[in-house]
Design brief:
seven-stranded mixed sheet; globular; five-stranded parallel sheet; single chain
C-alpha cells in the first residue's frame, strides 16, 4: 500500500516520485492521460521520426542541480535551440539581434552601432504599464508591429495592452549576434527522448504508476494520503471560485515526402497564417529518414490547459485558490498547473525537489535504491496524426 500519492506524471510528478522512493516511501503515481511525461511526452511516428507530441521542449538550466539529477536517467544530445521568425517574407533570427536588423533593413550594423539603431526608434516611457509599452520603449513601434503585436494576440488571445510588462523580458532585443534562444549553460534533449528518461525515472520498486487514472476516481483511502498534486488547482477545488483561464493549443502534424522543410527547428509566424509556430523535429533528432515531420501550433481557448493566463484578474483569482491550498494539510500543489504559473521544465523540477526535501523526511525504514540506468527496450510508435 502506498504511503504517498503523486498526481500527474509530468516532470514535476516524476521527479517528486523518484526522490520520495529513494527516501523510503511507497509511492503511487496517477496520471489522467494514457502516457507519462506530461507535455514533454515524445513518440516515434511511422516515418521513423521522434515527435514531441505537445510542442517543442528543449531542456535548459543555469543551475546544475536539476541537470545533474536528470543525468542519472539519460544521456544528452547537447543541442542549443535557435529560433527564426518569418517576417516580411524573410526568415530572421529571434530574439531580435544584429543579424535580424541587418537582414530586415539591408544594413551592416555591428555591436558598436546597433544600440544607436534602437535608440532612434524607441518610444521613451519611464514606467511602461503593459507589454506593448515595454516593447516599444525598447525597440520602437515598427519592430513591435513586426514581431509582437499579432504574435501575442495569437498566443494569448489578448491585445498586448492587456498583458503584463514582465512578458517583454522573454523577447528582449540583443545588442550582439548571439542567435541562441536560451543563454543557459546547460542545454539539451534526452538522447533517447523524454519518454525514455521518465520511464527510467519511474523504474523503481517503490513506485507504482497508473495511467488513465483520475484523482477524483480514486478511493477515499488514497485521497487521505500525503499528496503532491501537479494538476489544475481550480479543478481540485471543484471550480468553487470559478475556472481559472488558460490558453490551449491544437497541434497539427504533417509529414512531408522530402528531407527538410524549414531553416531551423522552430519558426515563429507573427503575422502570417493562423498557427503561431512550426517545429521540425529532425533538426535536433538527426534521425535518418527521407521524410520530415512538422507540428503546427494553433492556440485557442478550448482543450487541455497549457498556459496560465498572465493577467492581473487571473492572478487575483488564483491567489484565492492559493489561500485555500495553503490551508490544506498534507497536500502540496506544484508545477505550472498547481501554482498557476508558466514554468520552464527546470523550474518545475526544482519545485518538486524543494517540496520533497523540505516536507518529506526520510521514512523510518529508508532503503535507498539507485537503479542502474538502462536504455529503453522498445520503441514507442504512434500513427502519424493528421
Amino acid at each position: 500500500m502506498a504511503n504517498v500519492l503523486v498526481v500527474g506524471a509530468g516532470i514535476s510528478g516524476c521527479v517528486a516520485a523518484r526522490l520520495l522512493a529513494e527516501k523510503g516511501y511507497e509511492v503511487l503515481v496517477v496520471e489522467r492521460r494514457n502516457h507519462i511525461g506530461g507535455n514533454a511526452y515524445d513518440a516515434r511516428n511511422a516515418a521513423g521520426i521522434t515527435m514531441q507530441m505537445h510542442g517543442p521542449h528543449v531542456f535548459h538550466a543555469r543551475d546544475p542541480k536539476v541537470w545533474n539529477f536528470l543525468n542519472r536517467f539519460t544521456d544528452w544530445r547537447h543541442y542549443q535551440l535557435r529560433v527564426q521568425a518569418y517576417v516580411a517574407g524573410k526568415y530572421v533570427p529571434l530574439p531580435i539581434n544584429i543579424d535580424t536588423i541587418n537582414q530586415l533593413y539591408t544594413l551592416d550594423l555591428n555591436a558598436d552601432t546597433i544600440g544607436r539603431f534602437f535608440e532612434l526608434r524607441r518610444t521613451r516611457q519611464d514606467s511602461p504599464k503593459n507589454l506593448r509599452d515595454a516593447v516599444i520603449n525598447r525597440i520602437g513601434i515598427e519592430l513591435y508591429s513586426m514581431f509582437f503585436d499579432n504574435y501575442m494576440r495569437k498566443y494569448w488571445g489578448l491585445d498586448s495592452k492587456d498583458l503584463p510588462v514582465f512578458l517583454a523580458g522573454r523577447e528582449s532585443a540583443r545588442l550582439n549576434s548571439d542567435n541562441r534562444y536560451y543563454l543557459d549553460g546547460f542545454q539539451g534533449i534526452p538522447e533517447h527522448g523524454y519518454t525514455a528518461m521518465f520511464t527510467n525515472m519511474l523504474d523503481h520498486p517503490s513506485i507504482e504508476t497508473r495511467l488513465n487514472c483520475r484523482y477524483r476516481d480514486l478511493p477515499d483511502d488514497y485521497k487521505r494520503l500525503p499528496t503532491i498534486y501537479t494538476g489544475c488547482v481550480d479543478e481540485y477545488f471543484g471550480y468553487r471560485l470559478g475556472r481559472l483561464p488558460y490558453r490551449s493549443v491544437r497541434f497539427v502534424f504533417k509529414t512531408y515526402d522530402y528531407e527538410w522543410h524549414q531553416p531551423e527547428a522552430v519558426v515563429h509566424y507573427p503575422n502570417d497564417y493562423d498557427f503561431m509556430r512550426a517545429t521540425e523535429f529532425k533538426h535536433w533528432t538527426r534521425e535518418n529518414s527521407k521524410q520530415t515531420t512538422v507540428v503546427y501550433e494553433y492556440p485557442n481557448e478550448n482543450g487541455d490547459p497549457y498556459y496560465p493566463l498572465p493577467t492581473l484578474e487571473a492572478r487575483e483569482q488564483h491567489q484565492k485558490y492559493a489561500a485555500m491550498a495553503d490551508a490544506m494539510p498534507d497536500i502540496y500543489f506544484i508545477g505550472p498547473l498547481g501554482v498557476y504559473r508558466n514554468l520552464d521544465m527546470n523550474h518545475s523540477a526544482l519545485m518538486a525537489m524543494d517540496i520533497v526535501e523540505k516536507r518529506f523526511p526520510s521514512a523510518e525504514t529508508c532503503s535507498v535504491i539507485t537503479a542502474e540506468r538502462v536504455e529503453p527496450a522498445y520503441d514507442i510508435v504512434v500513427s502519424n496524426p493528421s
